[in-house]
Amino acid sequence: MANNPVESLPIIAITSGEPAGIGPDIILSALNEQAFPARLIILADPQLLKDRASTLGLTVDTRTLSHSHEVSAHQQGMISVLPIQQAKQTIAGVLDIENAPYVLETLKQAGEGCLRKEFDAIVTPPVHKGILCETGVHFSGHTEFFQAQCKSPHVVMMLATEAMKVALVTTHLPLKDVSAAITEQSISLVINALNQDLQEKFGITKPKILVCGLNPHAGEDGHLGREEIDVIIPTLDKLRQEGLDLVSPLPADTLFTPKYLNDADCALAMYHDQGLPVLKYSGFGNAVNITLGLPIIRTSVDHGTAIDLAGTGKANNGSLKVAIQHAINMANNAKKFSK
Ligand SMILES: NC(=O)c1ccc[n+]([C@@H]2O[C@H](COP(=O)([O-])OP(=O)(O)OC[C@H]3O[C@@H](n4cnc5c(N)ncnc54)[C@H](O)[C@@H]3O)[C@@H](O)[C@H]2O)c1
Ligand SMILES: N[C@H](C(=O)O)[C@H](O)COP(=O)(O)O
């Protein structure tokens, strides 16, 4: 019923991530430390969560759901679980290839539930890409997984802190393949999707986007690489004529300084390790990873599986809390827009 405040709370699906990593730890500790203004459903094996809670010495009220509509408003110390069974009991810190299908199943069910509008958003704790790939599946990231599942023609990976937003033209690509992937089409698709979502999901009327060059010193007038002259500059010029506010391409080594960042809404890096180390240096543990360009809302943490910390109680849950809150905000905004 529309008047019921519980029914107006968004339903957020949270996957367990890699069971041997810190995903279960940070879910348990985050949901134990505060109440979130949402209905939270964990897609996981309840036994995994019970075992990890016991290892961490946490007392958690675990409720196993038989259907998502049974979920109630989140309360501190409570977790509602939609069960998906692991193939094998997990030992914290020990990757097991037999549980890789379980991890993929949690993602599949989260995406399907969102596409069916049973969930309003997905939050993903980290998965271990290597162990998933060892099964023979090519898994380069959640970004590409949900892109394929949603049949989205182009998506954008953007990580954000309070201080800065960094988006990427290419995502999980070997460095040797990056240059060939920097094309008029890829740059235009990413910038248009980024500009649109900065307007619609972040309420920025005319986003100002700083664009990195690809080469050192943005190519030094062609002496250190020609991608800027041949591809990036002409593409940005065309997009500017369509009304976009783009600065650029700037040398990446000095773009990430207050002089430029203070006056802009987002930085666009050409590849993963050009932009993300800066963002993670400035805000590791407090950043959110958002996939733009999907028909569903998906946020994630800014860190990996930290296998070394699983079950130790030393994993920081800050980024998960930020990712959950962002998903709630975006889901609430989406509901307002759809009215
Ligand atoms: N969202 C995701 O699914 C995601 C994100 C990044 C990396 N990964 C995957 O995670 C795996 C491991 O990657 P990695 O070793 O490069 O990065 P990592 O983030 O797991 O670990 C890097 C370092 O940061 C520490 N660390 C990470 N998260 C922490 C936290 N919450 N609290 C305290 N310390 C933390 C680790 O202990 C380690 O020292 C890889 O398979 C990678 O692909 C997944
Ligand atoms: N590129 C992300 C990072 O470094 O934090 C990470 O690999 C996660 O990517 P997906 O959200 O695509 O799994």
From TrEMBL:
Pathway: Cofactor biosynthesis; pyridoxine 5'-phosphate biosynthesis; pyridoxine 5'-phosphate from D-erythrose 4-phosphate: step 4/5. Substrate binds at H142, T143, K280, N289, R298. A divalent metal cation binds at H172, H217, H272. It comes from Marinomonas rhodophyticola. The keyword Protease does not apply. Binds 1 divalent metal cation per subunit. Can use ions such as Zn(2+), Mg(2+) or Co(2+). One of its GO terms (molecular function) is 4-hydroxythreonine-4-phosphate dehydrogenase activity. InterPro entries: PdxA, PdxA_fam. Pfam families: PdxA (PF04166). Its main location: cytoplasm. Keywords: Cobalt, Cytoplasm, Magnesium, Metal-binding, NAD, NADP, Oxidoreductase, Pyridoxine biosynthesis, Zinc. The lineage of its organism: Bacteria, Pseudomonadati, Pseudomonadota, Gammaproteobacteria, Oceanospirillales. It is found in: Cytoplasm. It is an enzyme of class 1 (oxidoreductase). It catalyses: 4-(phosphooxy)-L-threonine + NAD(+) = 3-amino-2-oxopropyl phosphate + CO2 + NADH. The gene is pdxA. Its EC number is 1.1.1.262. Its cofactor is Zn(2+); Mg(2+); Co(2+). This is 4-hydroxythreonine-4-phosphate dehydrogenase. It comes from the Bacteria.
